[in-house]
Design a protein that fits this description.
By secondary structure, the protein is α/β, with parallel strands linked by helices. The chain is built from 43 helices and 27 strands. It holds the Pfam family MTR4_beta-barrel.
């Protein structure tokens, strides 16, 4: 039966039956029919022929709600009539039994399933333009109907299946990244075939293929052969006079109007074309030159726009009468300015001081997207921060979801909080979430280049010197920024960084959108920085102010601290003699200092205190040493006890009594706590929550606590200002110090924050303290590097090239392609207007002569540099040495050295030089004069009377060190010359010393007109390096070769040589610029070719760059992608049990060295050998392909220290027992197992792609085995 729903707006004709259970004797013959898309149903009460229900149709976007199907029928259908449920082993017998039980009809047409072809037309509504009444429907043809996620980057493509809407699929194309030009399918296919540039002036074909005659384009310029009588020339020169005034006015206004004023003056487009083409005409040239600057704003466009926050934003509520979100407080000026930009849908970079309130900007963006019914993604550098933000935003907005490696909560929410890696994967895999995305918020952007913080993120996953290390935040952030589509606006939240403007300029340039940069001038709560030297109850008040709230460095306080420390030390030394002055202190000394400081701070009500200690062991020791201190009241103790017990109650019985938990419970009751990566995640959360309530009075923490966790304290104490950064000990950088010190001072509670630096052994160096407190924070630097995953993900999609990604990275930000392309156009024009070269007759060898002379000058300058940088060369250039000066003003003139400057960086030589009368003054403009064309060694001899000058020479102006020396009196010569430079003594005769030296130089020049013998760099100066010897021999050969040229005899030689020089100079600059704008100049290009070579050798991609099966598998894997893929394809995991597989793969996520040797099964030992062998093979291959990392380093990344721990955990051993098997701290073990679960998921996905269901189910079992108890306890922030 067919029903037409008359109310459906698009007149859709559809039918869809509702399958009901078989009718009983008492049931009425009813059927339900869905009509159109409006959700209307109709009952069909008349009996159906043959008791058959209506056949279901798939014409509707969604089916009907499910109905209660008979359970017996369902079980029979699922388990008996579907062969997919057959057992894996003993298949034949099972199949025969299956045939007996089930009766199956052969349905051949089931094999012929075709997906419905897309509709090529749709209905469009025609309405009355005045009333809006519906008048008619018209059929319109639809464009791009064949687009899908498998062949297009466009947003016009059809949505994928619902199962892939969140994470996307690794066979999907990503959406087109913003700032990249969109290409059609045809263009993509053609582009590879048409890679070379077509020269549209001289490279066009004239005869079409298959035809005898063609088109002759050469006669086009004939009509314009006589520029003298060309009307356009007259018109354009008339324009110059006519448009003079308007042009000046328009330039003042700032509009690009010079061109606009002139365009209407031509009579037709054709004329305009002629006018532009006649660029050789001087009149038109002038017009063009004037018209260009205002008409080309593109090249000088600034993408980053700093926002002034010095004046209050008075019209805020007038401009936004109904804000999307309201706070119980009045927002600051910088927050209001950011909100105004968000309302205009602009992108912002907010660089504000710690605790200034950057989160307000994020909250407004979330509220705005909920108002617009779009989505926001919030990304943070660490998972712990994601969890905290989830709790905070959930309390504020309710509609918030969380996506991390192991947790997925409400993925359909309008605000999604996730780690940057997940967002990158969603972008590469074309997730449907991106369609609805309005904002992406990047928090804590200043960690983009902090390798150590990245080290804390994934169980210290950064391995220095490592080319295939686990994901680093910097590179992931850059990839995400490049891959974000055009409609998504960006919000970057950061601490104050010096180059926020430069970073924003880069983002703006690659995304082709303005970025508004908003910075705060000062902290909301100013800080006071002190030095503390006390170590007993007598000296506990020894606190010295070093930096006041206004930023003044007080040396008085510093010297007072030095005196206080010295007084005690000297008394000790007087009594017992000096001991070896080591920098370390004993545990008892530390304990005494901490006790005296904390008693002092408690008495001044300056708790809570965060004590930053750059060693996990020292954190624990310091906390334990405070056994005698109790800083909590009985009410607080009860609150801590109930909260702790309630939080720990979610653990299993045995896990509640872990040593770390018992120790922390005792410490917390006394108001002391420890926070570092070795602490169990659930304990860290308990500590954070108690700290934010003010119940933890002293928290010993490592640097990670300062990472974006909004938990300010009253006081911050630095246990030391030196830390180990993975390679050695160094002082804290200003950025690190500011970030940690910024935790002091709670807004609204404290007038100032207190920062204290402990002086344990002695007072720190004043210069070090000054740099650390007042130095500039580290600039944001690019961490962009190539990874195999990135290369494979981009090679999957023909329209995106890896070189495009490299060109847009922050590391290539120095490339000003627009300005360079503009300059290329100018140079090409200049080149076309240069007069042609005469290369006939005597001038036939002019071009080779130019090349020889150019090489000769380069070789001579190399030798000259080597000589001047050598000790023997500088020794030879002493007072009295006769030299050959070769500057633009004094070519090949003799001089004598009078003085040598002591500045080794910019060394100068004061010399007396002979010259023509009238050429004594230094010429400012002479530096631009071209060197003489004929390369000659003939010395300068004055034609008229000989004069002299005293000048400071640069090393490059000395072309030869002769073998001669003169006896001179330098001071007398210089004084006499200086005196005669004054106007009143200008006509005095030169002194005796100058006259003698000048006459002697002139005599030498006249005696040796062909050139004076010079010191040979190799034989005389004993410079024996290969470069110098080769350059010396080459110079000799070039000088000999010059004698054979005839062009120097031509009367027009000088003029023609100048032309050659000009033409080749322009050509060289053009070639250099063409290289700079090409992919060949990308700094990472050689490494890209090396990595492609590795992928081709391992058959991940074919010669044409198409991704093969192995490459598709590697795309699924985030760390050690090559190693893991090779292991899968070699079936290395097939012989192992699920527990053993998990234990073996732990080496990919664990990166610490351990002292305990694990005891493992024989199969695991074999597995480890195989992993090492594969890693060795990949390492050797990378080395052979040119990647600068040795195979030993590559293999050394794999650490098998937790193999036994993971094996025992997977087999069910309690956590308390596995903690005894290793010296690795509990928190690190937990996070390693959590990361391992992510790897197992990736392997499971990879097994699905390969088609290995056995391995897939094995990984699932391994994952289930490790997902238990304390390791996978849900976060307190999310539950």
């Amino acid at each position: 039966s067919l029903k037409i729903d008359q109310t459906a707006p698009t007149l859709s004709i559809a039918y869809h039956s509702h399958v009901l259970p078989p009718a009983g004797p008492t049931d009425l013959p009813l059927s339900l029919l869905e009509m159109g898309c409006s959700g209307r149903f109709e009952l069909i009460t008349h009996p159906l022929p043959g008791d058959q229900p209506l056949p279901p149709q798939s014409t509707l976007p969604c089916g009907l709600p499910p109905t209660s199907i008979d359970l017996k029928t369902e079980v029979k259908r699922q388990f008996l009539s579907d062969p997919a449920w057959l057992p894996l082993h003993d298949i034949d017998a099972a199949f025969h039994r299956f045939l007996k039980v089930s009766h199956r009809d052969v349905q051949v047409d089931k094999l012929l399933q075709c997906s419905p072809s897309p509709l090529h037309s749709g209905l469009s509504v025609v309405r009355d333009p005045t009333t809006g009444l519906l008048l008619d429907f018209t059929e319109v043809l639809l464009e791009d109907t064949g687009l899908s996620a498998k062949n297009s980057l466009s947003f016009q493509r059809q949505p994928g299946p619902p199962a892939e809407s969140l994470r996307g699929s690794n066979t999907n194309f990503p959406f087109l990244p913003g700032g990249m030009e969109e290409l059609s399918l045809e263009q993509i296919q053609k582009r590879t075939a048409l890679e070379e540039d077509v020269d549209f002036e001289s490279g066009l074909l004239q005869v079409p293929p298959g035809l005898k005659a063609g088109m002759d384009f050469s006669g086009k310029d004939a009509t314009l052969a006589k520029p003298e009588v060309n009307l356009m020339t007259l018109l354009s020169s008339f324009d110059d006079i006519m448009t003079l005034e308007p042009e000046v006015v328009e330039q003042e206004v700032g509009g690009g109007g010079a061109e606009k004023a002139k365009l209407p003056r031509t009579n037709s487009l054709e004329d305009l074309g002629i006018k532009i083409s006649r660029s050789s005409s001087p009149g038109v040239k002038g017009v063009e030159a004037k018209a260009k600057p205002p008409g080309e704003p593109e090249s000088t466009k600034k993408w980053a726009i700093p926002v002034d926050i010095s004046s209050p934003c008075l019209d805020f509520y007038k401009r936004i009468p109904n804000p999307a979100f309201k706070w119980p407080f009045e927002p600051d000026v910088f927050q209001k300015q950011a909100i105004l930009r968000l309302e205009a849908h602009e992108s912002v970079f907010v660089a504000a001081h710690t605790s200034a309130g950057k989160t307000v900007v994020a909250e407004y963006a979330i509220a705005l997207s909920q108002k617009h019914m779009t989505r926001t993604i919030y990304t943070s550098p660490i998972k712990a921060l994601s969890n905290q933000k989830f709790r905070d935003f959930k309390n504020t907005f309710a509609d918030v979801g969380l996506l991390t490696g192991d947790v997925q909560i409400s993925p359909e929410s309008s605000c999604l909080i996730m780690t940057t890696e997940i967002l990158r994967s969603m972008l590469y895999n074309g997730s449907e979430v991106i369609r609805d995305l309005e904002w992406v918020i990047f928090d804590e952007v200043h960690y983009i280049n902090d390798t150590e913080v990245r080290a804390h993120l994934h169980i210290q996953t950064v391995m220095r010197r490592n080319h295939t290390s686990p994901p680093q935040r910097g590179v992931v952030w850059e990839e995400v920024l490049i891959m974000l589509p055009d409609h998504v606006s960006i919000i970057l939240l950061s601490a104050t960084v010096p180059n926020a403007l430069e970073f924003s300029e880069w983002i703006g340039r690659i995304k082709k959108k303005h970025i508004y940069v908003i910075s705060t001038a000062k902290r909301p709560v100013p800080l006071e920085h002190f030095l503390y030297t006390g170590n007993s109850s007598k000296t506990q008040k020894e606190l010295f102010l070093l930096l006041d709230p206004t930023g003044n460095f007080l040396t008085k306080g510093y010297y007072a601290a030095v005196e206080a420390k010295k007084e005690r030390t000297s008394k000790h030394a007087q009594s017992f003699g000096t001991k070896n002055a080591s920098q370390s202190t004993t545990a008892n000394q530390d304990k005494a200092q901490w006790l005296s400081l904390l008693h002092f701070l408690t008495s001044r009500q300056q708790t809570p205190v965060v004590a930053f200690t750059f060693s996990r062991t020292r954190c624990d020791d310091n906390a334990r040493s405070l056994a005698s201190m109790d800083m909590t009241s009985s009410v607080e103790k009860a609150e801590i006890h109930s909260f702790f017990t309630k939080s720990i109650s979610r653990l299993r019985g045995a896990d509640r009594n872990l040593p770390q938990i018992l120790l922390m419970r005792d410490l917390l009751k006394r108001g002391v706590a420890v926070h570092h990566s070795g602490i169990l995640p659930i304990l860290k959360e308990v500590i954070e929550m108690l700290f934010s309530r003010g119940l933890v009075k002293v928290l010993f923490a490592t640097e990670t606590f300062a990472m974006g966790v909004n938990m300010p304290a009253r006081t911050v104490v630095f246990d030391s200002i030196r830390k180990h950064d993975g390679t050695g000990f160094r002082n804290l950088l200003p950025g690190e110090y500011i970030q940690m010190a910024g935790r002091a001072g709670r807004r609204g509670l404290d007038a100032t924050g207190t920062v204290i630096i402990l002086c344990k052994k002695g007072v720190h160096d004043m210069a070090d303290l000054h740099v650390m407190m007042l130095g500039k924070p580290t600039v944001l630097q690019s961490q962009f590097r190539l990874t195999y995953t990135m290369i494979l993900n981009l090679l999957r999609v023909e329209a995106l090239r890896v070189t495009d990604m490299m060109r847009r990275s922050f590391s290539e930000n120095h490339r000003d392609t627009q300005a360079q392309e503009k300059r290329i156009r100018e140079l090409k024009e200049v080149l076309s207007t240069l007069p042609p070269l005469e290369t006939g007759g005597q001038l036939s060898d002019l071009v080779p002569y130019y090349h020889i002379v150019t090489e000769l000058r380069l070789t001579a300058s190399v030798l000259q540099r080597a000589t001047l940088e050598s000790v023997s060369g500088l020794k030879a250039l002493s007072t009295g040495r006769v030299i050959v000066v070769n500057s633009n003003q004094h070519p090949n003139a003799l001089g004598v050295i009078l003085q040598v400057s002591s500045d080794s960086v910019n060394r100068t030589f004061t010399a007396l030089i002979i010259c023509e009368k009238g050429n004594e003054e230094e010429e400012g403009s002479s530096s631009n004069r071209a060197p003489p064309p004929v390369h000659t060694s003939a010395l300068f001899i004055p034609e008229g009377p000989c004069s002299h000058t005293v000048q400071k020479l640069k090393p490059t102006e000395i072309s030869g060190i002769t073998v001669k020396t003169l006896k001179v009196i330098p001071d007398r010569i210089i004084d006499n010359y200086s005196k005669r430079q004054q106007p009143r003594f200008r006509h005095d005769p030169p002194g005796q010393a100058i006259s003698t030296a000048t006459q002697e130089l002139l005599r030498l020049a006249e005696a040796n007109p062909g050139g004076l013998a010079t010191l040979d760099p190799v034989n005389d100066l004993q410079l024996k390096s290969v470069e110098v010897v080769e350059a010396s021999m080459r110079l000799r050969a070039l000088n000999d070769g010059l004698k054979d040229f005839n062009c120097t005899n031509s009367p027009t030689f000088t003029e023609q040589f100048a032309r050659v020089q000009e033409r080749f100079g322009v050509q060289e600059e053009l070639d250099k610029l063409l290289f700079l704008v090409s992919d060949q100049s990308l700094s990472l290009l050689p490494e890209y070719h090396q990595r492609i070579k590795v992928l081709q050798t391992l058959q991940y991609v074919d010669v044409g760059g198409a991704v093969q099966l192995k490459g598709r598998v590697a795309c699924q894997i985030s760390c050690h992608e090559l190693l893991l893929t090779e292991l899968l394809f070699e079936n290395a995991l097939s012989s192992l049990e699920p527990e053993e597989s998990a234990a073996l793969l732990a080496c990919l996520v664990f990166t610490q060295n351990t002292q305990v040797i694990p005891h493992i099964t024989k199969t695991l030992q074999e597995g480890i050998k195989q992993v090492v062998a594969v890693a060795q093979r990949i390492g050797d291959l990378q080395r052979d392909c040119g990647i600068g990392q040795s195979a030993e380093d590559f293999v050394a990344q794999l650490k098998f220290g937790l193999t036994e721990v993971v094996y025992c955990w997977a087999r069910g051993m309690p956590f308390a027992e596995i903690a005894q098997l290793t010296d690795v701290q509990e928190g690190t073990v937990v996070r390693c197992i959590q990361r391992l679960d992510e790897v197992l998921k990736e392997v499971r996905q990879a097994a699905r792609i390969i088609g290995d269901s056995v391995l897939g189910s094995k990984m699932e079992r391994a994952s289930l085995a490790i997902r238990r108890d304390i390791v996978f306890t849900a976060s307190l922030y999310t539950h």
